[in-house]
Write a structure and sequence with these properties.
By secondary structure, the chain is α+β, with helices and mostly antiparallel strands. The protein has 34 helices and 34 strands. Among the domains are: about 100 residues; about 130 residues, no CATH class; about 130 residues, Roll (SH3 type barrels), CATH 2.30.30; about 130 residues, Phosphatidylinositol 3-kinase Catalytic Subunit, Chain A, domain 1 (Ubiquitin-like (UB roll), Roll), CATH 3.10.20.90. Helix 6 crosses helix 26. It holds the Pfam family Transposase_21.
């Protein structure tokens, strides 16, 4: 047979198809037969999905009391109402749950896990790290344990051995956290049990085999439910007795050992959490946030949470809770495509530091496969549980208040871009209409030999038109119908079809899906900018400064961050590909501006500062409406100028999403409250439970059981204040510093207290502070302090080598000041002060986050009551052998004059923290110094002038911002022409640029516009960008030309007007 006439083999379904409109109508008719009539006063009828009976072991309230009937829709201001489970689409009244359930998957879901452009920050080579010793055997998995609670308590309370003061439950708990803390293998655990058993007296009750040790932790009350799916199309298989896949586009024969994913019923987990001592009281701290408005400190200040709270909403009840959901893929082995896809729920009502702890985070489902999950399959059990929580609630028992009913609501969801596309059933991030916040289509741009989808900044409407909840449902229905009728477009406004998220009670699928700053801002924007600056592949572009990468690396390695930064700085040249998201966060918020201040040119540096300052505001605890308006202006300016300073082809979705970040804060609180950081940590915790390559699901079951058992065992077996609790805390929190004397609430002395004899200057400061002179000049002093969660280490603490925790912010009579603590001195039982070295911070305006300062020689004594918090203090060191003249000319304009004086004296060290608001073109000191030097050169005559001067021809070029024509030199009659100059041969790019501005823009303007309307660069005679560090003499020696010709290229810049209201 001719090859062209052969029938092409079908590899599998590729389209996502749904039931037709007629089928939807038939489904609706079947439902209506048993459907109760709902009125405005009645609760809507709940059509639950069938689940495994094991998931129903918890007790639900059978009836709803009148005071708990809060089923009306709470709409947050400025957004569309969440979609009810029954609605009208295109004139057809349909049940959305039935519609989504019948939208079978018909796509090839065998996708490559490495297609995440944002780069998954989490990776563990578990195959090499863990041994194959901790998996459960099949016999153990198939056993059924029906021990009652009384039997378990009796066993847990047994003595370890006759006459022992420690119970078997307490000892097993200590042993469990010890083995987990130090990652002991199964063989090591068994040997440890044998060793302890040998030491214990005869007749002890400790188990002596690994099997018995595992079996002890399988007696859990939280059931694990298996949900099966087709291995080819991932369609949900509800009835295991069926022989074929229920997906009509697949209908593959189902094997007996079908693939499955795990559900850990959230109802049971909520009940267990509420049974813990103090849990309910911790939920009540959120009510302090509602005393003020217009300040964003947590998720409670966002408009979405307020909509559930205001007007006696459901979250105004102290018993109800809400969740933030996350899912993402975590590769398990380096040599395999197998990955975990857990679904986590974080309880928003807990204080932030508690809600992100592993024991307080709910694991709802777990998918383990080489394929990415079909979200309409994975989300189905979670939807059922959330409907139960919303409609009926769950009965909880808290010892302090007794039994009560708790309801739960899904408030927000966060994920990286690929996972968000799966959750919302939308197009990938590199397609048209891929922004989930607006309906801008974007456009295609050429990148090398390929193409990229970009989002140019729209000045007239940067954030619009907005995407809405109702419109998304309409788009899903239209896309479904088009796919069934085999007509285009099969994707409508970026929506490929329905998602189960539409059916979650009261959930807004548009505003409720957060923009994750971890993947978007850090691994997306910040990483892109570092690559554009330092990657060799961009060396031909004017924004690339690869030649300065060694200097930047030297500065990075010289930084001494605080202990709050877990990772020390690493080089860009050798380690950038290994940087974690937290390292990009440190670079953006702390390192980037000080390190890059003399490396980037002024325009790009100011452009980058906009991103730094805006990010600080959006992550700040306590930002105001005015702060957010300033942040939005800065982000708009950043996005607008990005295509000019870099290139339009790099303006991907990550750049575009910056314009929506402020709205995200207004809806869900500061960016850190809905980031993926805590969920990625949870992924790492779960992955560490895997010890080997066999029976992965069995290991995960054991691990989850182990996690769930620990808090229960601690409360049941360990007495508060006992020696066992001290050992427990030491094992679990071995890295915590041991506190010494308590000075006041949340203030503790750390380390030793020593007597110290003060010198005359120090003693004079003590007399001045006390208003009298003590009889002795010897006082108790110490070097370390825990101050309201901040660690402050004096510089006299000699063991601190690679970090600096000595800088503080203090306020006396409302004046903010900075200082470097040397040590702390105890003047009396009630008066303790910090002996600090003063920092000159005259440039601090109270608003900037990064400030240029001078460390002074004078010192002061500051009582603890005036200290506000700790801060970072960086000394930027340059180790290259540059001359003084080169350093002075290379200084960026954001440094203050005093700093420049210091640099002219000291060749080895540059001390600076960059100010974020100083944008003057040149300091007066430099101008005077250059004029004086020029004058001296002229007085020495032509012979000396030849030694220090060079002739230069300079032309002015205007570059068309639309790239519709080639750059052209401005003629003389239009203010351009070729100007002949005599300049110092040590002039660099910045010096030539400033001379050109003075010539072509006298008094700051000309016929073409004002100086501020343009961005400038310097090109050599070949119209190639001039290197930042090259001097005029260097170019003369290399080119051998008689008279050097340079050009001043400029691009017209449309400035963003602050008074222009761009909000839709």
């Amino acid at each position: 047979m001719d090859e062209s006439n052969r029938k092409r083999k079908r590899r599998g379904p590729y389209r996502k198809a749904d039931t037709s409109i007629d089928e939807l109508t038939l489904c609706l008719e079947d439902i209506e037969k048993n459907e109760a009539v709902t009125t405005d006063k009645d609760e809507p009828e709940n059509h639950d999905l069938t689940l495994d009976e094991a998931s129903m072991s918890c007790i639900f309230t059978a009836t709803l009391q009148e005071e708990n009937q809060d089923c009306e829709l709470y709409v947050h201001e400025g957004s569309n109402s969440p979609i009810s489970t029954e609605t009208i689409i295109d004139g057809i009244d349909i049940d959305i749950k039935t519609w989504v359930e019948n939208c079978f998957v018909e796509e090839d879901l065998t996708l490559n896990l490495s297609d995440d452009d944002e780069e998954n920050d989490l990776y563990f080579d578990c195959e090499d790290f863990f041994e194959e010793n901790f998996e459960l055997t099949e016999d153990l998995l198939q056993e059924e344990f029906f021990s009652t609670e009384e039997q378990e308590i009796e066993f847990d309370n047994k003595e370890l051995f006759p006459g022992s003061s420690i119970t078997i439950g307490a000892f097993m708990l200590l042993l469990a956290i010890f083995t987990s803390k130090f990652n002991l293998t199964g063989e090591a655990i068994e040997m440890l049990l044998t060793l302890i058993g040998t030491i214990l007296p005869h007749g002890h009750n400790l188990c002596n085999t690994l099997y018995a040790f595992k079996k002890y932790f399988t007696h859990l009350k939280n059931p694990l439910v298996k949900h099966y799916y087709c291995s080819l199309c991932c369609a949900y298989v509800e009835d295991r007795t069926k022989k074929k896949c229920p997906n009509k586009y697949c209908e593959k024969a189902l094997p007996t050992n079908m693939n499955y994913f795990l559900e850990v019923p959230i109802i049971n987990q909520i009940q267990n959490l509420f049974s813990q001592e103090g849990f309910h009281s911790k939920l009540q701290e959120r009510f302090h946030y509602f005393k003020s408005t217009g300040v964003y400190r947590d998720i409670y200040d966002g408009s979405i949470y307020r909509s559930y709270f205001n007007n006696s909403g459901p979250l105004s009840s102290p018993n109800n809770i809400s969740f933030t959901m996350n899912t993402d893929g975590a590769p398990v082995f380096k040599s395999s495509k197998m990955s975990l896809w857990p679904i986590y729920l974080m309880i928003n009502e807990l204080p932030y530091k508690l809600r992100i702890k592993n024991e307080n985070m709910i694991l709802a489902s777990l998918w383990f496969d080489s394929k990415k999950p079909a979200m309409n399959t994975l989300l189905k059990p979670l939807l059922h549980s959330m409907e139960l929580l919303h409609n009926e609630g769950v009965e909880c028992d808290f010892p302090e208040i007794g039994k009560f009913n708790c309801k739960g609501y899904l408030l927000a969801g966060t994920a990286d871009l690929p996972a968000r596309c799966l959750l919302c059933n939308s197009i990938q991030y590199n397609g048209s209409y891929s922004c989930w916040k607006c309906l801008q289509p974007g456009e295609t741009a050429s990148v090398g030999k390929g193409h990229a989808h970009v989002y140019p900044f729209k000045i007239e409407c940067p954030k619009g038109p907005p995407r809405t909840n109702d419109q998304t449902l309409q788009d899903a229905q239209t896309a479904t119908r088009n796919q069934q009728e085999k007509r285009n477009p099969k994707v409508v406004n970026g929506v490929k079809g329905p998602s189960w998220l539409i059916c979650f009670p009261k959930f807004n699928i548009v505003n409720g899906i957060a923009i994750d700053y971890m993947h978007g801002l850090l691994l997306g924007v910040q990483k892109l900018m570092i690559r554009l600056w330092f990657d060799k592949s961009f060396s031909k572009f004017p924004f690339n400064i690869h030649s300065a990468v060694e200097k930047v690396d030297a500065r990075l390695l010289s930084l001494l961050p605080t202990l709050s930064i877990t990772r020390l700085p690493r080089t860009i040249q050798n380690h950038l590909k290994y940087w974690k998201a937290s390292e990009f966060r440190s670079f953006l918020l702390y390192y980037g501006a000080p390190v890059m201040y003399e490396i980037l040119d002024r325009d790009r540096f100011s452009h980058y500062l906009n991103l730094v300052n805006a990010s600080q505001i959006l992550l700040m605890n306590g930002s105001t409406e005015e702060n957010l308006k300033n942040a939005e202006d800065m982000l708009f300016s950043f996005c607008e100028k990005f295509s000019i300073l870099y290139d339009k082809k790099y303006m991907t979705l990550n750049i575009h999403q910056l314009v929506h970040l402020v709205d995200c804060v207004k809806e869900l609180g500061p960016l850190y409250t809905h980031s993926c950081f805590p969920f990625e940590d949870k992924n790492g915790f779960v992955l560490k439970l895997i010890r080997g390559t066999q029976n992965i699901d069995s290991q995960i079951i054991t691990g989850i059981s182990f996690i769930q058992k620990l808090p229960e065992l601690k409360q049941k077996c360990i007495v508060k204040g006992s020696d066992v609790e001290k050992v427990y805390n030491e094992i679990k929190n071995s890295q915590n510093l041991k506190r010494g004397s308590k000075i006041e609430n949340n203030v503790y002395i750390l380390g030793a207290i020593n007597s110290k004899k003060l010198d005359k200057e120090q003693f004079a400061l003590v007399c001045n502070l006390l208003h009298y002179c003590p009889t002795t000049d010897t006082f108790n002093c110490f070097n370390r302090l825990e101050f309201h969660g901040n660690l402050i280490y004096g510089t006299d603490y000699a063991r601190m080598k690679k970090r600096n925790n000595s800088a503080i912010i203090y306020s006396i009579q409302g004046v903010i000041s900075f200082g470097v603590v040397k040590f702390f001195i105890s003047l009396s039982e009630t008066c303790i002060a910090a002996y600090i070295q003063n920092i000159d911070n005259k440039k601090f305006d109270g608003k900037s986050f990064i400030v240029s300062v001078n460390l002074q020689q004078s010192c002061s004594l500051v009582p603890l009551k005036y200290i506000k918090e700790s801060c970072m203090f960086f000394t930027i060191k340059d180790t290259d052998n540059q001359t003084n003249d080169h350093k002075k000319s290379a200084l960026n304009d954001v440094c203050n004059p005093r700093l420049k004086k210091r640099i002219s004296i000291n060749d080895k060290e540059v001390v600076a923290v960059v100010s974020t608001d100083d944008t003057e073109s040149e300091s007066e000191n430099n101008q005077k110094r250059r004029k004086l030097k020029d004058k001296r050169c002229k007085l020495k005559g032509n012979e000396n002038a030849k030694k220090f001067k060079r002739r230069l021809d300079l032309g002015w070029i205007i570059c068309n911002p639309n790239h519709s024509s080639e750059p052209h030199q401005v003629k003389q009659n239009k203010g351009g022409g070729t100007r002949k100059l005599t300049v110092n041969k040590t002039y660099t790019k910045e010096d030539v640029k400033e001379e050109g501005k003075k010539i072509f823009f006298p008094k700051g303007k000309n016929k073409h516009g004002k100086l501020d309307d343009f961005t400038f660069d310097v090109w050599d005679f070949a119209q190639d960008p001039m290197d930042n560090n090259v001097t005029i003499e260097d170019i003369y020696e290399k080119s051998k030309v008689k008279i050097l010709r340079l050009y001043l290229p400029s691009r017209h810049l449309t400035l963003y007007k602050h008074q222009f209201d761009v909000r839709p």
